[in-house]
Amino acid sequence: MKKSTFRNQSFYWIIISILCGLLIWNLYVTITQSKLIGLLPIAIQCTLLTMIFKKHEYAKIGIKIWATLFLAIASGLQFVGRLLQDLADGFSYVPLQHYLITGITILIGVLIVVYTNKTVEIETLENSST
User: Fold this and answer.
1) What digits encode the pLDDT tens for the residues 55-92?
2) Which run of H or E residues covers position 130?
3) CA distances from 126 to 3, 28, 116 (A)
4) What's the confidence (pLDDT) of residue 18?
5) Residue 98: left (phi > 0), alpha (psi -120 to 50), or beta?
6) Angle between helices 39-54 and 59-66 (to 10 degrees)
7) Of 26, 51, 60, 81, which one's alpha carbon is 20 to 30 angstroms from that of 5?
C-alpha cells in the first residue's frame, strides 16, 4: 500500500489553509449568487482535501495538477487576456490591482508545485499478512 508523506508540516498546513480558504470563499459565492457552476471548484477542493487528510497516494499529483491548472495556468490566462484587452484599449485605464493579484497567484501556484516536488514523497507500506 502506498501513501503520501509530507516531510514539512508547515507546508502541509499551508496547503490545507489555502484549500479551506478557497473552499469557504467558493461556498459563499455559490450560495449568494446561486450559480451551480460554483459546485465544480467546491468538488475539486473537497476531493483534494480528502486525499491530503487521508494521505492518499495520489495527493501529491492532485496538489500538482490543482496548482498548475487552477492557480498558474488559469491566472496566466486571465493575466494575458486582460493585457490584450488593455492593449486593444490603448492602455487608457490599467488595472494594476488585477495584474498584481494574478501575478501573485501565478507565483503561488508555481511555488506550490516546486515545493510539492521537494517535500511530498510517496512511501510504500508493507502489509504484514501472516
Assistant:
1) 999 999 999 999 999 999 999 999 999 999 999 999 88
2) none
3) 11, 43, 24
4) 96
5) alpha
6) 150
7) 26
Q: Where are the domains of the chain?
A: 2-124
CB-based contact 122:57 (threshold 8 Å): yes
| Torsion sign (Cα): 9, 121, 57, 65 | positive
> How far is the C-alpha of 81 from the C-alpha of 119, rounded, in Å?
33
Q: Largest Cα–Cα distance of the chain, in whole Å?
A: 74
The alpha carbon of residue 61 and the mean position of all alpha carbons in its chain are separated, in whole angstroms, by: 12
Phi/psi for 5 (5° steps) reads: -125, 125
Residue 10's CB is within 10 A of a number of other CB atoms, namely 9
Q: Give the cell for residue 85.
A: 484587452
Identify the residue whose cell numbers are 475539486. 44
Q: Which residues pair with 4 in a beta bridge?
A: 122
